[in-house]
Write a structure and sequence with these properties.
One of its GO terms (cellular component) is plasma membrane. By secondary structure, the protein is mainly α. It has a domain of about 50 residues. The chain is built from four helices and no strands.
């Protein structure tokens, strides 16, 4: 399901890019299809601009909807929920559960040794 929505999402993104590029700019620099066409005709510059603007708006709305659907589907596929919920979990869950005799010996040695003195003299 996610793959189908993702493909539709990518097609909409490419359609929006294409529609924006073929629209006539204010200065007419990158516009395609300018000139002629007669007064009030179907392919007049005003009618073409309205059709392209409407198509861009529809594609943008569909792109927004597919973005929301992808977010909902991605959240539903994770079993743990929000990433903020996972911050409260203890980090020890990912550590190995077995503690060997070497670990106990290191802990005992750490308790017996005095703390090291700072290497930088403290100003008095």
């Amino acid at each position: 399901m996610i793959q189908v929505v993702l493909v539709i999402h990518l097609i909409l993104a490419l359609a929006i890019i294409g529609l924006v590029l073929i629209q006539r700019s204010e200065g007419g620099g990158l516009g395609i299809g300018g000139g002629g066409g007669g007064i009030g005709g179907l392919a007049s510059p005003g009618a073409t601009a309205n059709a392209l603007s409407r198509a861009t708006a529809i594609c943008a709305g569909c792109f927004f909807v597919t973005s929301l659907v992808l977010g909902i589907l991605a959240n539903a596929s994770t079993s743990k929920g929000s990433i903020l919920d996972r911050l409260d979990e203890p980090a020890a869950a990912s550590a190995p559960a077995e503690a060997g005799a070497d670990d106990e010996a290191e802990k005992k040695a750490d308790k017996d040794t005095p703390p090291a003195e700072p290497s930088v003299p403290v100003a008095q």
